[in-house]
UniProtKB/TrEMBL annotation:
Protein's UniProt keywords contain Transmembrane: yes
Domain of life: Bacteria
Species name: Virgibacillus chiguensis
Ranges annotated as spanning the membrane: 80-103, 123-145, 157-179, 185-203, 215-233
Assigned keywords, A-Z: Membrane, Transmembrane, Transmembrane helix
Name this polypeptide is given: Zinc-ribbon domain-containing protein
Keyword Transmembrane: yes
């Protein structure tokens, strides 16, 4: 079997033994065979089977790149769907943790924050931050004369997000059971999309390019992304303070 990414001969399987790229030849053949055998409309069984197939594919994708995240440099846009799922999972983990901490630790002290302000809006904002980071990373690759499509950028960001999901969850768990010093894992994981992932992508190519110097592009990238991130944090804190003062005023007027 010939790998479509590096064009080396590899053993049969889902991933190339040389570069680690996902090989879709078997899956495509199975899909074509399935389409030729059945032309009926989708029913509940077909939908559940599709969900199961996507779940298995994502599990294989997740474990493969969790074990070897450096192979993201060989990834193509064919893995864009599981990559997007990884981004959504990271955003969910962060915003759910934020909501639980606020409601359990601070909510007992006259802080009234609803599910919309505490989870839904921060979740959307975090996804928008990821979208901004992806677009800014794609623009940076063009400034440094790297040959990368927007779809490939999305895929690489999603793959590089996988280890930071594990780091964030480990930081939350170890902080919750009060193991000292491991709380530092939380800010490290949160800085992943802003600093580490763009750096991995922009510095992974070893070819001589003729664009702008990557160091200066990265410095500009960090500046812009930190400005956007600080704006989102200020807006989030503003919502919390709004809930705080709302609870205070409510308690004040209830006394009269």
């Amino acid at each position: 079997m010939i790998c479509p990414n590096c064009e080396h001969e590899t053993k049969e399987g889902k991933y190339c033994t040389n570069c680690g790229a996902h090989i879709y030849l078997e899956e495509a053949a199975v899909a074509e065979e399935g389409e030729s055998q059945s032309d009926t409309t989708l029913n509940n069984g077909d939908f559940s089977s599709t969900v199961s197939t996507v779940g298995k594919h994502f599990a294989s994708f997740f474990m493969h790149y969790l074990k070897s995240p450096h192979k993201a440099r060989f990834a193509t846009q064919q893995d864009i769907i599981p990559a997007i799922i990884s981004i959504v999972l990271f955003a969910l983990a962060v915003t759910i943790s934020f909501y639980v901490v606020v409601t359990s630790q601070v909510g007992n002290y006259f802080l009234d924050i609803g599910f919309l302000d505490g989870f839904i809006i921060p979740f959307i904002q975090y996804l928008l931050l990821f979208a901004f980071i992806i677009i800014l990373t794609f623009i940076s690759t063009k400034l440094t004369a790297q040959h990368m499509t927007l779809q490939e950028t999305v895929t690489k960001v999603g793959i590089y997000t996988i280890p930071f999901i594990l780091i964030f969850l480990a930081g939350i768990l170890l902080t919750w059971i009060r193991i000292p010093f491991f709380s530092v894992l939380i800010p490290i994981s949160l800085l992943g999309p802003v600093i580490f992932i763009p750096s991995f992508i922009l510095l992974e190519s070893k070819e001589k390019e003729y664009g702008y110097d990557r160091v200066y592009v990265l410095i500009a990238f960090y500046f812009i992304s930190f400005v956007v991130m600080s704006f989102l944090l200020q807006e989030m804190i503003g919502r919390l303070l709004g809930g705080l003062f709302g609870g205070l005023m409510g308690d004040f007027f209830q006394g009269y």
